[in-house]
Design a protein that fits this description.
The complex is a heterodimer. Chain A contains 1 helix and 9 strands. Chain A is an alpha+beta fold. Chain A is elongated, with a radius of gyration of 20 Å. Chain B is mainly alpha-helical. Helices cover 78% and strands 0% of the residues of chain B. In chain B, helix 1 crosses helix 8 and helix 2 runs parallel beside helix 6. Chain B starts with a helix and ends with a helix. The chains are: A alpha+beta, B mainly alpha. Chains A and B meet through strand 6 and strand 7 of A and helix 6 and helix 8 of B.
């Protein structure tokens, strides 16, 4: 009985430690929003603070799904029609990072500009 | 729009069709039946429909990153099973007449997961555009062409592998499966970084100057590798 309890306690401790590594406690991140309206990103240029991890909420106001994709940011996410999606980006060094909508690449284009002096909201 | 549809569907089909071709070739080389693949593909298509149609619900889970977690989970499962397959396939069969049920089971899981995942993405793309005016002109024909090219590449790879000597065929098939599994774990990690489960960092290296991911060649590089293998290596390795 004692052995089983000790074994269980050790397993529980190990699992908690392991989960602690996998799910670190994180501070609140700045949140930005982008909308997809008629296969266009609004705003098409998003200014974010450099060297900071940010949370971007993308609202797809169209009926059809869109795929938010960026090679520079290494992000790829399908946003269903009339739904929102969350994408975490950063920390990015200062610069311009283009993104596009893969399902409508000719119209849905935008860029994220990471700026040094941008105050964190 | 038409070319866009071709590339989108082709990319999805290519991953599954290359893995399927390599696995089937390995089965043939070990005198195992390949009938299991039909069931795995059909079951995979069923799951693809299920997964695709539940995407509205799944994407809202886990604080909006349900889709990333689900995709990462599938990729990790396929990766693990594929590595098990490679490990088993790398050693010669103990008895040529015995059906290797365990191996076939794990290969079926890999195929099912890949078909389900790629199929779901195609389903979302096609279903999403079903109401638009470009559906019949661009999306459907483009999708059919893309899928047809993907299947053809798989068939080309399968027959190419079987035309080689047994030793080379197995080595190349296993190398291909290892490379594909590396792609799976890369995608899984990308999903987890995207969902803020893992921390991202600056890339280790960037050789996009040699082959840009954004170019058509970059996106369809696996197709080019297979064609080049067929042209240049067939004579040397037969």
């Amino acid at each position: 009985m004692k052995n089983r309890a000790t074994k269980f306690a050790r397993l529980a401790c190990a699992a908690t430690l392991a989960l602690g590594w996998v799910f670190p406690v994180s501070a609140a991140k700045p949140v930005f929003e982008i909308e997809i309206i008629n296969h266009l990103f609004e705003p098409s240029t998003l200014h974010i603070p450099a060297n900071t991890k940010v949370k971007i909420i993308i609202y797809n106001r169209d009926k059809t799904p869109e795929e938010f994709e960026s090679y520079e940011l290494n992000r790829e996410k399908v946003i269903m029609g009339r739904r929102k999606a969350i994408v975490f980006v950063g920390p990015l060094s200062p610069g311009t990072y283009p993104f596009f909508g893969e399902f409508n690449p000719h119209t849905a284009q935008g860029e994220i500009v990471a700026e040094e002096n941008n105050a964190v909201k | 729009m038409l070319l866009n549809s071709v590339v989108i569907v082709l990319r999805e089909v290519l991953e599954a069709s290359v893995v399927l071709a390599a696995l089937l070739a390995c089965c043939r080389l070990r005198n195992q039946s390949i009938g299991w693949s039909k069931f795995a593909v059909v079951a995979g298509l069923g799951f693809a429909w299920l997964y695709g149609s539940s995407m509205y619900f799944i994407s809202e889970l886990a604080g909006g990153v349900g889709q990333e977690l689900a995709n990462a989970g599938f990729q990790l499962l396929a990766f693990t099973c594929l590595l098990l397959c490679v490990y088993k396939l790398a050693s010669p069969p103990e008895n040529e007449d015995v059906t290797e049920t365990g191996l076939i089971g794990v290969m079926a899981i890999v195929l099912l997961v890949l078909v389900a995942r790629e199929g779901a993405e195609i389903y979302i793309y096609i279903y999403g555009f079903s109401g638009s005016d470009k559906f019949l002109d661009d999306v459907i024909p483009g999708g059919i062409v893309g899928a047809a090219i993907g299947f053809s590449v798989g068939a080309l790879l399968y027959y190419f592998l079987l035309s080689l000597s047994k030793r080379w065929a197995l080595n190349i098939a296993l190398l291909l499966l290892i490379v594909m599994s590396a792609g799976m774990i890369r995608q899984a990690v990308q999903m987890l970084i995207q969902a803020d489960i893992l921390s991202g960092s600056a890339p280790l290296w960037d050789t996009s100057v040699l082959l840009n991911e954004q170019s058509v060649l970059g996106q369809l590089h696996i197709l080019c590798v297979i064609v080049l293998l067929h042209i240049f290596c067939k004579k040397a390795l037969t």
